[in-house]
Each structure stands twice: as C-alpha cells, then as structure tokens.
Amino acid sequence: MNDSQLLRYSRHILLDEIGIEGQQKLLAAHALVIGAGGLGSPAAMYLASAGVGHITLVDNDTVDLTNLQRQIAHTTERVGQSKAASARITLQQINPDIAVTALNERVDDARLAELVAQADVVLDCTDNFATRHAVNRACVALGKPLVSGAVIRFDGQISVFDPRGGAQPCYSCLFPQDQQFEDVACSTMGVFAPLVGVVGAMQAAEALKLLMGVGASLAGRLLMLDGLHMEWTSIAVGRNGDCPVCATKKY
C-alpha cells in the first residue's frame, strides 16, 4: 500500500483483527453486487469505502424518482439513467482508487455463472425469488460465498450461504425453489427507507468479513429484523439433505 492508502484505511489497519494484511486482502478482492437499488446502494458504498479493489454492479433498471426515498447511491439528476452506471459514479466519487464495473443487463444462468466465477464474494441485493435462486445455484456450483438480504415494509432479513463450509445450507435449503413464494414489490407494499440501509450495510459487513477471513459469518443463521419494534430474531438454519441444489455438492 502507498502512503495515501495507509492513511485512507488507517482506521481498519488499527484493528488487530484486520491490520495491513486484512486490508491488503480487501484491495485484492472482487465483489459481485447483483442489484443496485435499496440494498445494493449501501452495500456497494461500504464495500467501496472499505477498499474492495474491484466491484461489479449488475442491474438492468433505470433510476426512477420513487427510488430516491431509499436508494442512496442515486441522485435526482440521474433519474432516467442506468442504475448500475449511476451507482458506479457514486462509488468512484467515494473511492477513485478502486475499479468499478457497471453492467446494465438482466443476467441469465450462463451469464451469472461467468460473473460469479470471477468474484470472491457475491451479494444478492435483488427483489425477486427467481433471481435469488439463480444466483444461489451459481454460487453453489462454483463454491462462492453468497450474502443474501431482503427488506419489505418494516421487515428485513439477512443470511450468508457459504458452500465452502460443506455442511452449511444454501438459499434453496431455506426457501425451496420448487415451492411457490409470492414476490412482493416495494411499489405495491411499500418499504421503510432506513431498513434497506441497515440490511445493506450488514451485507457489506458480512462480505468484508468473508473476504478477510475474520470473525464468524451468518452461515447457518437467519437474522430477521422487525423494524417497527426494532427487534432482531436469530434462527438456526440447517442443510436440507434432499436439497436439489446443494445436497450432492462436495468441496
């Protein structure tokens, strides 16, 4: 690290659990953030400020005025622009020393496999079960840790699905892909703005810990937040031995 980096990341370096070695791991890391909206905005901004060397943002949507209540990577002036491109501007303003790739596209399974293969950690910041399951399948197949978050109305949840652990569950163990779950959209149900910041920031924290190999991740646990009463509930999540996605995978 040069003198400017030593100064920029000095508050990380002061932490015994991180130090120079941990910060260098972040600088060499590649994070894939799928979704540049309510969750992806704070998650990506914290990854950038922390010094993750390469961040790839994927989102095929454009900035809408209704997004600005909670999607803090975007501004009024960028309404109508690609969310991925808008978020890229914000991240590079926060930290011009990192590389940010903005992809304005809807990714299919083949494209997801290509992108996940290039990443060290994947953050699922999407808002529908079909995409979440597709991301999970790619992460399981390629052995990449997945940090998953979701928020609707006053409720939030976050977990880590890390196939490298062997006995850890995947997203499909918790929400089987052959079962019907109703997608609920912020446009019809509403969402309390600060909650996406809380969960998105926690996704960044879990991703940074995974990249540096410090602490204990949320693998095997689901944290649920009741934002109206500000109460967290932690639930243990076990691996489904019959899961069609991860049951036969061995690492």
From TrEMBL:
Keyword Nucleotidyltransferase: yes
GO annotations of cellular component type: cytosol
Family per record: Belongs to the HesA/MoeB/ThiF family.
Keywords: Nucleotidyltransferase, Transferase
Keyword Nucleotidyltransferase: yes
CDD domains per UniProt: ThiF_MoeB_HesA_family (cd00757)
GO molecular function term, any single one: thiosulfate-cyanide sulfurtransferase activity
SUPFAM superfamilies with a match to the protein in the record: Activating enzymes of the ubiquitin-like proteins
Pfam family for this entry, one: ThiF
Protein's recorded name: Molybdopterin-synthase adenylyltransferase MoeB
Ranges of residues in domain THIF-type NAD/FAD binding fold: 9-245
InterPro entries: ThiF/MoeB/HesA (IPR045886), ThiF_NAD_FAD-bd (IPR000594), Ubiquitin-activating_enz (IPR035985)
